[in-house]
Amino acid sequence: MRFDVITLFPELFPPFQTVGVTRRAFDSGQAELALWPLRDFADDAYRRVDDRAYGGGPGMVMLVQPLERALIAVRAAQAAAEAAPTPVILFSPTGARLSQPRVEALAASPGAVLVCGRYEGIDQRFIDRHVDEELSLGDFVLSGGELPALALMDAVLRLLPGVLNDEASHRQDSFSDGLLDCPHYSRPDVLGDAPEDRVPPVLLSGHHAEIARWRRERQLALTAHRRPDLIEAARASGRLSAADEACLRSLRLYS
Ligand SMILES: C[S@@+](CC[C@H](N)C(=O)[O-])C[C@H]1O[C@@H](n2cnc3c(N)ncnc32)[C@H](O)[C@@H]1O
After folding, report:
1. Residue 25 above 80 pLDDT?
2. Which residue segment(s) compose the domain that 184 sits in?
3. What are residue 204's phi and psi, to 5 degrees?
4. 144 close to ligand 1 (CB < 6 Angstrom)
5. Disulfide check for 178: which of 21, 104, 152, 234 has CB 3.0–4.6 Å away?
């Protein structure tokens, strides 16, 4: 898969290709990252890519034309590599919230062109002409789209085969089956005198079915407590078993 990133700050990206599990996606050739420094597509001596907003007000707006020239260069590079043109994603607080199902769909796709905004944002005409999807990381405002681009690529690349140490591990992560993850424990089994300092005995029992049941119950309890909306969504999509429903009923009994 291929990501083309249009950005004012390309220097934020190289470490992402050389550290951690995502490095494997690049080393194995499963993923390719091309950086398109927006100032290279300015057309004046000052390499200007922003200007004041029509109508006044504080802050600068990213200009359409350097962005369009960058996108033309991306398309030319994709054509030269005989790669399919990929959809254009713009990061914006006004976009749809990025979700695990969207990440999974992207992991099964040929990639995307990621446009990183800065300043007050991007001239709306570039969005109207070229952007296929606007994505937000959440209800807060960052100073640029570079961290969202890195977050999206990290979430996508860790799903590619061979990138995580254990293929199964992302399937027990939060959201992969619509619920939050269960708590995890490691050595030592006893940390202190308080009851919560002890690893739950079932995890030391070696009884796989009991451990699986305990984990599922903890997932259901945590999700019901923190994200009841996810329980409703899992129920609506038929992902809760009769045993899950019984567990949820017992939780309500004792809460
Ligand atoms: C300072 S922000 C602009 C915020 C914009 N004026 C607004 O209020 O919606 C600059 C850039 O950071 C990126 N950005 C900021 N917050 C974001 C978020 N929550 N999700 C995705 N991108 C974000 C976008 O690319 C945005 O164009």
Report:
1. yes
2. 174-254
3. -100, 0
4. yes
5. 234
Domain co-membership, 182 together with 216? yes
CB 90 within 8 A of CB 65: no
pTM above 0.85, yes or no: yes
Q: Taking Cα atoms as reference points, which of 97, 145, 141, 96 lies closest to residue 117?
A: 145
Give the pLDDT confidence score for residue 168 in this predicted structure. Answer: 77
Q: What is the domain count for the chain?
A: 2
The preferred substitution site among 133, 141, 143 for testing ligand 1, maximizing ligand atoms within 8 Å of CB, is 141
Stretch 184-205: mean pLDDT: 97
Cβ of 46 closer than 6 Å to ligand 1, yes or no, is no
Any ligand 1 atom below 6 A from CB of 168: no
Catalytic residue among 10, 23, 24, 93: 93
